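User: What would this chain look like folded?
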Amino acid sequence: MSGSAVDAAIAPAIDSYATVAKDESVSVRDLLLFLWRSRWFALIGAVACAGLAIGASLIATPSYSASMVLLPASNSGGSFGSLGSAVSELSGFASLAGLNLGSAGGIKVEALATLQSEVLTDEYVQEHDLLPVLFSKKWNPTTKKWRRGVRVPTLWEANQLFKGIRVVDDDAKTGLVTLTIRWENPYTAAAWANGLVKLTNDYLRQKAISEAERSIAYLNQQVTKTNIVEVKSAIYTLMETEIKKEMLARGRRDFALRVIDPAVPPERKSYPRPLLWTAGGIVIGVFLGLLAKLLRETMVDEEEHNYRTRRPGALPQADPSIRDRGIEGF
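Assistant: Here's the prediction, encoded as structure tokens.
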């Protein structure tokens, strides 16, 4: 087939496509008319989705958020500030002696890491016997045993669940840390938040005391092995620092995390939020209603187009009044 013949064959198709594209261009007036024709679809969709959202918010399990504000030891000043300056002066010699005096920033990092650690969570869950509380659907409160046919939850599963319950927010500008516990019972959420912080302070306090005692014992051994006055003086200074650390750990209740604002049982639910869900349902319902109306008109237009362009001898022709089908006014 020659090039002119091909051009003559495809020219009608190109013209037809251009005509359709021109006809399908949408103006502001067309858009407003479409929205007016779709008003009932949008209204029905909004009412239906809003009703579903309200129903879902009523049957959803509520949760409460108990929050507390903390100040890590590195930002609390006082004894930690003077101790930090002494540590920085002796850190070089301490490293040669094989001691780890830590730093102010390191204390904060360790405290926040411990607060979110699996070791601390395991200890807290075991100490307060929280497996039946965390997995209450598998627990029979009457028999005080796990229900038959269910797998007994493990501490690992409790840890994974706690990762979604516990949220730690560190504000770099103020240095404050916010711990939030989300749970079904507001009193339980507040108790867990306060208990986790207390356990973190107790854990790090005991660790600091043990490390200080080992360091003092080691330094006592080393001071007897040298006759150099400068070295003995440095060792005694290190011992003084370790003694201060031990005294601070024993005498300070909020050792690593100072409680600025303790957690109290919240009175308002944090989940679900009926108003927010209803508003979202209305928006989604309007969108679905407009989409349904658009699909309906597109299908009607296609059927009308097929009716007008159908050749003789083809399948039975469609009813030209198909646009008038359906509910009047839609």
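The beta strands are 64-72, 139-140, 145-146, 166-170, 177-183, 257-261. If you want, I can go into more detail on any region.
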